[in-house]
User: What shape does this take?
Amino acid sequence: MTDMAPSKSRLGPRARVLALCAALVAATGFALSSCGGEDTTGTATGTGASAAAGGSGGSGNSGLGGNLFGGHDPGNPAVSIQIDPQNPTLTVENGALPAPLHFTATGLDVDGNPVPVVGSWSFDRFDVASIGAASGDLTATGVLGGVGTVTFQTPSIAGTTSATVKIRITADPQAVDPGIKSLFASASQPDPSMALVYPYDKTVFPRGLPGPIVQWNGGGAADIYRVFLHSPTFELESFSTVPPPSRFTMPSAPQDVWRVLTDSTAGAITLDVQRYDGAQAYLAKTQTWTIAPAVLTGVVYYWSIQQGAIVRIPIGASAPETFLQVGNCVACHSVSAKGNRIAASRDGGWSPWMTFDAASGQALFDSGVSSGFEAISPDGEYLLWRHWSDGAFNSTGALALSAYNSTTELATLAPNGGAPAHPAWSPDGHKIAFSQRTDGNGLVFTQASLWYADVSLSPPGFSNVHPIVANDAARPTVTYPTFSPGSDWIAFMRANNAYCNSPSVGYPVLGDIWLSSLDGASQIKLDALNGAGYLSSPDDSLNYQPSFLPVAQGGYMWIVISTERNYGNMIEYAPGDYNSRAKQLWVAAVDANPQPGVDPSHPAFWLPGQELGLENMRGQWALAPCKQLGDTCQAGYECCDGFCHDDGNGNLVCSDQPGGCAQDGELCQTAADCCDPNAQCLGGFCTSPPPG
Assistant: This one.
């Protein structure tokens, strides 16, 4: 936005003097009290202001020269720009926009003397605020908070400062007594009974999901709580009575608070929950979360045991969709990384495999041949099958490779010394991981190790077949592998049984999620994901069947697991009761650049959209079916051709042209293709490092 000066033909003598004064202020950064005979100085809104703002700010491009500062030599050029105020903050209170914040620019010569400068203003966060190119007035949009850079640019030099817009929201639906509110600030005693039970401290949340329901135990029916979420760019302060079971849902009206919070924050945000018990207020129970600067994407397909069906949740949806319901049961599914096709077994027992179109659910092929678990290639063209070979879960000791619509075997994977199980295909299409069992049958077994193989489709075949992770006495079942987005790490389950959903094998089935390099040299237990340190034993070992999202987002890899842990006080089991527990799907962030010996995982959060109380297992995470040229998009990985660009009208649409360097989520071959010099190229797409 550019501020336009009034036309000279409409200015009277005094108005022209005032306009000249304003032009001098904009050009020099000084308010001259002699101009017009009156003081035009005002106070800068927001915090951190170090100089006053004069008038409305005339055209900063007026280019007035001359000896404005007494004895100063006007021929000595400016070598730097000083901007005032430095690093200010504008606060939007409950949607009310503050007055614009006025910036001034002063040129400084080599001796530090002020020099007149001519230039224009810009601000690089158009979603957060706009600035008058001539006036230097920064106006918050009120939509989002954030930190941007204010720049004053002359033909030869530029000056910058940061500017922060903070969104502050208060909620007091019960009109809590102001006297009680004031007690929270002076609290000095730790809370003797309240405990936060969900989410967990240090959880990483993405954008694009409904907000977590904050849950705590240990309060009374009439207790009053202050819930305070705060970061440099966002604050929510809420006061209310929350009787047990105590839960706080982010307000959705008049605005979606969680969406504003996540869109306004990249990095750390702190949660404080304080209690007033009728006599005194206590110190807050505190957690720190991280907001990843990326909208989580894809679709999670999972087995709903009670429905005997494959159900799916598009990320961000409020409820699941029943997707595949074939015969008396359909399960053991695998989804192509690109999200175009799915393979699944029907009718239990002998479990013949079928393939389906992932967009419509239409059946593409019914093999009529026993299989159990399958692995489908990233493009959905090929299938690895025959985990078992009959209705008794027996195995031939080999897996078969075929086209997605044929039982003609193109190649056979037959490692020596056992039976291959639970195969997984890498996102780059060149690698296979599987477990090699040495006892039991294809459904129930306890002895297994993790193996690796290279796969070729032209000609079809396998090579470099070898074990990478051995089992151990405590967790002798190593299985359910899943490749990271870059195809360079494998997450897997270590457990005491592969069959983790039947009391017939003895509860609890103990399982932990691990990460391994492709050669097995680096093996890392994902303690933070599993619950170590914040869940009691053995609840921190009830984790099963991991599956990575095929692309990294916001500097993280994202993984979905099945787990039988409590969900705060929404799903709360009696201690020691493992027979009645139901699995639910949880998601965790994993650092995109794991380092040997260092846990790269973060605490998991419950996947919104599930139906509480149902048994949900075997989450398979894939991209949604890709979008065509011209379709609206948020990132390149949503598009069939890999690029998502502005169409010139402010709309992001799918494109087949790189358009220069690759933005986050766009196609790349190496990190050098990415616009961010710190980005990685993982799974063929750029991803920037995590915030902070």
Notes: The CA atoms of residues 408 and 486 lie 31 Å apart.
